[in-house]
Amino acid sequence: MWAFVAPSLIVLAVIILYPLGRAIWMSMHSDGKKLDPETGMFVTGQFTWFENYKNWITQSCNTANGSIPCPPGTLGSQFWQSIGNTFGFTVVTVLLETVIGLSMALIMAKTFRGRGLLRASVLIPWAIPTAVTAKLWFFIFANDGIANKILGTNILWTADPWPARFAIVVADVWKTAPFMALLILAGLQMIPADVYEAAKVDGATAWQRFRMITLPLVKPALMVAVLFRTMDALRMYDLPAIMMGSNPATSTISVLVVDQMRVGANSASALSTITFLIIFAVAFILVRFLGANAVSTQEKQRKGEPV
User: Fold this and answer.
1) Where is the ABC transmembrane type-1 domain (predicted)?
2) Are 222 and 98 within 8 A, CB to CB?
3) pLDDT tens digits, the chain, 307 residues: what are they?
4) Which domains does the chain have, with CATH numbers?
């Protein structure tokens, strides 16, 4: 059996384990020059264990005289703000996309003329490349863009912190809600029509059918959609980077990683490892405690167990 499994394991080790191990190894080395007490010379890439991680978490910067709090405006001072931005975007966008996606899926699941055309048109925002979407919404939220002209305002959407965050949320929800709708629609189509017919015969209202039939039976697809979208939102990079540039108010962890990569690869590796651990922890919580495991949930439903 191992002879058949070994090639797959080797491929997985090459494309997953090696890059991860290499990133962790690089994260334990310094970027800047340090004085080697044995040779009396400045050397680069010294093994520093978890110093890069400590510097990010405490927002400290190394100097010739030791570590000091990173000055405002530097990348090291943006760690916790980027963490807050990332989780803020994730919670708000995933929540809105789930509600809007479920509503869209419920409409597309009905039988009516033009349903195929509606489904195709709904997927257009998701099919557009993110870079194009970011530029499109950048022009919409420009100082003389459509948003200000329609609202009759002079809001600096790409400069002021809260308007910039709002613009990112709107653009992301517009693009990704169709993806949520597509996954939820697949779950809705797995629900037998005779279940609804039986409920109607028993006198169940539309709200009761939605609450007692639709939601429990679509839960596996819904939780998988939330899991995929959450992990994607935690890695958000191109949308805020292209729309807002290096605006700290909208900087996510991924944006900070790329910016730090241009300064020092080893400390950027530490930050990317922290990002991986955060995403892994969130995915574990969703799968383990919130039931974002479609196979397990469907098996419980089949056996009549609570999910």
Assistant:
1) 83-286
2) yes
3) 677 788 888 888 788 888 888 888 888 887 765 655 565 555 566 777 888 888 888 888 877 666 778 888 888 888 999 999 999 999 999 999 999 999 989 888 887 787 788 888 888 888 889 899 999 999 999 888 899 998 888 888 888 889 999 999 999 999 999 989 988 988 888 888 888 888 888 888 888 888 888 888 888 888 888 988 999 999 999 899 998 887 888 899 999 998 888 888 888 889 999 999 999 999 888 888 776 555 555 555 555 555 5
4) 81-303 (1.10.3720.10)
Which residue's structure tokens are 């459509």?
146
Taking CB atoms within 8 Å and a gap of at least 24, the contacts of 127-134 are 128/175, 130/175, 130/238, 130/239, 130/242, 131/238, 131/242, 133/171, 133/174, 133/175, 133/239, 134/171, 134/238, 134/239, 134/241, 134/242, 134/243
